[in-house]
Design a protein that fits this description.
single chain, 340 residues, alpha/beta, six-stranded mixed beta sheet, 10 strands
């Protein structure tokens, strides 16, 4: 007898349709936009950040990784079982390893030995093979090694530094997301660093086209101002500014370039954690440090958006956590005299 009580209704697997559920790829993008509460921008300016670390594999690179593989599949360049290879500082490698795990591709990451061990371990956890190149060979060396291995073994190169699918996905997702978030709302500055240039190029192009009043601000390491025509020098902002300007970077998209130092970037990342509870990496701190500099000179009441590319977990072995103790600290004294 039907009691009429909906709690008695039973569901079976046949009632569940695949289209009723999302796949991991469906959660790439649509990342949170957060207004900061405590860190002041001065002059009644408002600071907002876009949390790209909320992507499934923890960084903005999930976006191009998904699209580079999807477009290669659509062209018929790859089929499940083919090996993919990429030169990466880590975030793109982690993102590609995630997508490859879902789609059924072996993946080889080529990374300079100077990048954090957390990145290597995350990729290996996703069953990627990680090949380390000498730090002295810089990003250029990673690319050369990638090309040589791909040629020898017949592997498919995703080529994040020159693949148009990289900025294209930001034109199709990141830019429209920002425009939607700020529909009928004020936005004066969009601030982003660059590694491949995909984010600032794709999103920046869309924002400039739809909102020409918004100023696009690029930022890069003070010691490696490639956009300013200066010589590249090693820096601590992992994932930013390789020792060449990528083909995917639109060098004309930014209205202004605001360099930041390693120390400013680390300090800004720590400030976001302590004051806003936002756990992000050094490149996120660098972007935010640039946003703070923009805010200092902006007219009163300006709204400034900064892109935060990733999370902080992949920086535990870097200078970002150098002063964070691993063992017991002064908090242990709180146990003194307790009976427990």
């Amino acid at each position: 007898m039907d009691s009429g009580n909906k709690d008695n209704v039973r569901y079976t697997a046949t009632d569940m349709k695949d289209e009723d559920y999302k796949t991991l790829a469906d959660y790439v993008g649509n990342t949170p936009l957060v207004r900061l509460q405590k860190i002041s921008a001065g002059n009644d300016n408002r600071l907002l950040v876009k949390l790209e670390g909320n992507n499934p594999a923890g960084s903005v690179k999930d976006r191009p990784a998904l699209n580079m593989i999807t477009q290669a599949e659509l062209r018929g360049d790859i089929t499940p079982g083919d090996t993919l290879i990429e030169a990466t500082s880590g975030n793109t490698g982690i993102a590609l390893a995630m997508v490859c795990a879902v789609r059924g591709y072996p993946f080889v990451s080529v990374m300079a030995e100077s990048f954090s061990v957390e990145r290597r371990r995350l990729m290996r956890f996703l069953r990627a093979k990680v090949v380390l190149t000498p730090a002295a060979d810089r990003a250029t060396g990673m690319v050369r090694a990638t090309e040589a291995m791909a040629a020898k073994h017949g592997w498919f190169m995703t080529q994040q530094f020159e693949n148009e699918a990289n900025p294209a996905f930001h034109r199709n997702t990141t830019g429209p997301e920002i425009l939607s978030d700020f529909a009928d709302r004020r936005l004066d500055y969009f601030v982003s660093g660059y590694g491949t240039g995909g984010t600032i190029s794709g999103a920046g192009q869309m924002i400039r086209a739809a909102r020409p009043d918004v100023r696009i601000i690029s930022t890069e390491p003070e010691g490696a101002q490639m956009l300013e025509g200066k010589e590249w020098q090693p820096h601590k902002i992992q994932g930013w500014t390789p020792d060449f300007l990528p083909d995917t970077l639109d060098t004309a998209v930014a209205h202004q370039n605001v360099p930041v130092s390693d120390d400013e970037s680390i300090a800004a990342s720590k400030a976001l954690a302590v004051n806003e509870g936002i756990f992000c990496g050094i490149s996120s701190g660098g972007t935010f440090a640039a946003a703070l500099k923009v805010a200092e000179r902006a007219e009163a009441g300006s709204v400034i958006l900064a892109m935060l590319p990733d999370t902080g977990e992949r920086y535990l072995s870097t200078p970002l956590f150098a002063d964070v103790p691993e063992g017991p600290d002064e908090g242990q004294e709180l146990l003194d005299g307790l009976d427990y």
